[in-house]
Amino acid sequence: MNIELSAHEARVLGCLIEKQITTPESYPLSLNALTNACNQKSNRDPVLDLSENEVQALIDSLSRKHLVIERSGFGSRVAKYQQRFCNTEFSVLQFTPQERAIVCELLLRGPQTPGELRSRAARMAEFTDADQAQSALEALASRESGPMVQRLAREPGRRDSRYAHLFSGALADTFIEDTPGNDAPSEPRHSPVLERLALLEQQVSELREEIALLKLKA
User: Fold this and answer.
1) Separation between Cα atoms, residue 14 and residue 123, nearest integer Å
2) What does the DSSP 8-state code read for residue 174?
3) Considering only CA atoms, which of 198, 96, 207 is closest in space to residue 153?
């Protein structure tokens, strides 16, 4: 899988997929609508405060990756944008409705348990039973073209493991369970030092992204 997204690029794509499903009458999205969607306080984690200039820079970056396209329509005075990440005529990635809803939620909120995903993704796809989210996750984790999601090590105090998308690069081995099918309780293998290192790496990545955006504004 050659797709690698920054955290903010993942948010932009997640918003476009979400609005395409939930409010098709308002899709594609203008820059203003997309900025509002990125900064939305519900169904988002973390809550962001991106400016229109920052979102435009993210759109430009995703356009260069052929994941977003401008599609304004005849006579429109405002540029509007749509995703070509998945389930379009331009997309290599084709998901079932349940898989697409789960991927969207992971892009919008980060790692979540199957139960959380089933509950939150139900606004975008119907889940007939409690096992359907788990089945969709297993399908995403075992795709022939490469895994799209990865199960993380179970955290203290949690009954279920969380899943994360892999569109922002591979996850560190210390955060991955040895056996995806093993339901027995396991002790987390990540140490405070490794957690701190992972946090610092994420902060450096975010700072680099912010510097790039500031350069575009200058």
Assistant:
1) 14
2) G
3) 198
Return the ∠ at Cα 143 (arms to 153 and 126), rounded to 5°. 80
Q: How far is 31 from 52, CA to CA, in rounded Å?
A: 7
Pick from 105, 104, 97: nearest CA to 135: 97
Asked if omega into 28 is within 30° of 0 (cis), the reply is yes
Q: Which two tokens stand for residue 212?
A: 């790039």
Angle at 69 between CA 65 and CA 71, to 5 degrees: 175
Please tell me whether residue 107 adopts helix, strand or coil conformation.
Answer: helix
pLDDT tens digits, 121-171: 999 999 998 799 999 999 999 999 999 999 999 988 888 999 999 999 877
Distances in Å between the alpha carbon of 200 and those of 35, 110, 176, 194, 207?
27, 18, 19, 10, 10
Q: 83: closest CA among 14, 142, 150, 140?
A: 14
The H or E element spanning position 204 is helix 192-217
Tokens encoding 184: 């027995």
Question: At 141, is the secondary structure helix, strand, or coil?
Answer: helix
Asked if pLDDT for residue 211 goes beyond 90, the answer is no
pLDDT digits (tens, 9 = 90+) for 174-204: 455 543 444 444 434 444 445 555 555 556 6
CA–CA gap between residue 97 and residue 95 (Å, rounded): 6
